[in-house]
From TrEMBL:
Gene Ontology process terms (BP): transmembrane transport
Species whose genome carries this gene: Sistotremastrum niveocremeum HHB9708
Record localization: Membrane
Domain of life: Eukaryota
Keyword Repeat: no
InterPro entries in alphabetical order: Mem_transp_PIN-like
Membrane-spanning ranges: 74-96, 108-131, 152-171, 338-361, 373-391, 411-431
Alphabetically ordered keywords of this record: Membrane, Transmembrane, Transmembrane helix
One Pfam family in the UniProt entry: Mem_trans
Protein name: Auxin efflux carrier
GO cellular component: endoplasmic reticulum; membrane
Recorded topology in the membrane: Multi-pass membrane protein
Length: 435
C-alpha cells in the first residue's frame, strides 16, 4: 500500500510539475520579448472567445446525447460549484473586515483556476497512469477521461459566471463603515438630505420674493431621478452582457444540439450514420478547442511576468473621473494573507471536499456509481487563484501598487503549484477505496 501511495504521489508531482513548466515557458517568452504585452492580451482574448467556446461545444455536445450520459446526475457537482466559493467568501470576509486583509483577498479566495490548470493536470495524470483505476485502462479510458473533462468544464462555467456577477462587487467592500467605499443606499440618502437642505435654504432666503417659486428646483430633482434610473438600467444591462459571453453561448448551443437527436447526429455521428458535419466542421472545432488549455496557461505565464516587471510609467493611468475604491491595505502583499490563501486553497478546501466525498460514498448513494464524478467534486476547489482576478483588480480602480501585489500573489501561488499533488493523491485514494 505504501509503495502504491508513493508511486501515485510521484506521478501527481510529475503532473503538477509539467503544468508549472508550461506556465514558465510563457514567462520566458515574455522575458525575452518573444511575446509582446499587446500580443499576449490578444491571445488571451482569443482563448476565451474562440478556443474555450469550441472546446465547450465539442466536448459537452458530444457527451450530452450519448446513451450513457450521466449529466442528469451531476447536481451534486453543480451544488458544490456554488457552495465552495460561498464558503471561501464566508471564511475570508471577517479577515478582510476586521483584520485589514486586502479586499482582493475575497476574489482570490473565491475563484480558483478552474479551466486550464485542472484540464492540463488530468491530462498529465492520465499519461502517468495515476488515474487508471478511476478512468480505466481499457478501451473505455478515452470516454471516461472525456467525461471527467466535461465535469471540470461545467464547474468552470459556474465559476466564470460567479466571477463576472459578484467579482467586481467584492473589490468594493470596505474595512470599516467609515470607508470611502459607500454603498449606493448611503450615497442616495446623503444626496437626498443635501437636496432637502438646499431647498430649505432656498425657501427661507426667498420667502419674500413671490416671483421666484419654490418649485424651481423640481425639474433638477426629476432629471437626477431619470439619470439615476438610466444608470441602474445600464449597469443591469452590462451585467447581463457579461453573463452572455461566448463560453456561455457555447454551452447553450451544446445543450441544444446534444439534446436534439437530428442535430446531434449531424454534428457528432460518423458520416455513415448521418454526421455530414462531423468530419470537417466538428473536427476543426475540436482541433481549435484542443489547444485551449496549453495556450491559456502559456499566456498566464506571460501575464504574470508583465505584472511583476511593470513599473508605474508602463501602467495605464486610471482617469480621475473613475471611482476609486482603493485603501492602503490593497497596496501590499503581506505574509499572513498569503499564508491564509495557501491554507485555504491547498489544505482546507481540499480536505472539506475529499471528506464530503468520503462521507457521501460511505453512507449514501447520492453520488451514484461514476468515479469520475467523485474525483471531479474532490478536486475542483483545489488550486491557485484564477488569473482573471488580476483583470478584475485592473478594471476596479485600484492603485498600481495593488495590481502589482496581486501579480506577486499569483506568481507565488503558481510557484508552489506542486503542492496540489497532496490533495490530488488524497482524492485518488478516496475514490479508489470505493471502487
Amino acid at each position: 500500500m505504501s509503495t502504491s501511495l508513493g508511486i501515485t504521489l510521484l506521478s501527481s508531482f510529475q503532473s503538477s510539475l509539467s503544468v508549472l513548466l508550461t506556465l514558465s515557458y510563457g514567462l520566458v517568452a515574455a522575458k525575452y520579448k518573444l511575446l509582446s504585452p499587446a500580443a499576449s492580451s490578444q491571445v488571451a482574448r482569443l482563448c476565451i472567445q474562440l478556443f474555450l467556446p469550441a472546446l465547450l461545444f465539442t466536448s459537452l455536445g458530444s457527451e450530452l446525447g450519448s446513451s450513457d450520459s450521466d449529466f442528469s446526475k451531476i447536481w451534486p457537482l453543480l451544488i458544490w460549484s456554488l457552495t465552495y466559493p460561498t464558503l471561501c467568501l464566508s471564511l475570508t470576509y471577517p479577515l478582510v473586515r476586521y483584520l485589514h486583509f486586502p479586499t482582493w483577498c475575497l476574489p482570490a479566495a473565491a475563484f480558483n483556476n478552474a479551466t486550464s490548470l485542472p484540464l492540463l493536470l488530468i491530462q498529465a495524470l492520465a499519461s502517468t497512469g495515476a488515474l487508471d483505476r478511476i478512468v480505466g485502462s481499457d478501451s473505455s479510458q478515452s470516454q471516461n477521461l472525456q467525461r471527467l473533462r466535461n465535469y471540470l468544464l461545467m464547474n468552470a462555467m459556474v465559476s466564470n459566471a460567479l466571477t463576472f456577477t459578484i467579482g467586481p462587487r467584492l473589490l468594493r467592500l470596505s474595512h470599516s463603515p467609515k470607508s470611502t467605499s459607500m454603498t449606493l443606499d448611503e450615497e442616495s440618502l446623503r444626496d437626498a438630505r443635501a437636496r432637502t437642505d438646499d431647498a430649505t435654504r432656498f425657501s427661507l432666503a426667498d420667502s419674500s420674493d413671490e416671483r421666484q417659486p419654490l418649485l424651481a428646483r423640481h425639474p433638477i430633482s426629476s432629471s437626477n431621478s431619470i439619470q439615476s434610473n438610466f444608470s441602474r438600467f445600464r449597469a443591469s444591462f452590462h451585467s447581463l452582457e457579461c453573463l452572455l459571453n461566448p463560453p456561455l453561448v457555447a454551452v447553450v448551443l451544446a445543450i441544444s444540439v446534444g439534446r436534439t437527436e437530428i442535430l446531434r447526429r449531424i454534428f457528432f455521428e460518423t458520416p455513415e450514420r448521418g454526421g455530414i458535419l462531423n468530419a470537417w466542421l466538428t473536427k476543426s472545432m475540436e482541433n481549435v478547442g484542443g489547444v485551449f488549455s496549453t495556450v491559456q496557461l502559456f499566456v498566464v505565464g506571460s501575464k504574470l511576468y508583465e505584472g511583476l516587471m511593470a513599473t508605474p510609467s508602463e501602467k495605464t493611468a486610471i482617469p480621475d473621473s473613475e471611482p476609486s475604491f482603493d485603501i492602503p491595505q490593497n497596496s501590499k502583499l503581506t505574509l499572513v494573507p498569503f499564508l491564509w490563501l495557501v491554507f485555504l486553497r491547498f489544505l482546507l478546501m481540499p480536505t472539506l471536499a475529499t471528506s464530503a466525498v468520503y462521507i457521501l460514498l460511505s453512507r449514501t448513494s447520492l453520488l451514484g456509481q461514476d468515479p469520475t464524478l467523485w474525483f471531479a467534486i474532490a478536486i475542483v476547489a483545489t488550486g491557485p487563484p484564477a488569473s482573471r482576478i488580476a483583470a478584475l483588480v485592473d478594471l476596479s480602480g485600484l492603485s498600481e501598487k495593488a495590481q502589482h501585489s496581486v501579480a506577486r500573489l499569483l506568481a507565488g501561488f503558481y510557484l508552489i503549484t506542486p503542492l496540489i499533488s497532496f490533495p490530488i493523491v488524497a482524492a485518488i485514494v478516496v475514490c479508489e477505496r470505493f471502487l
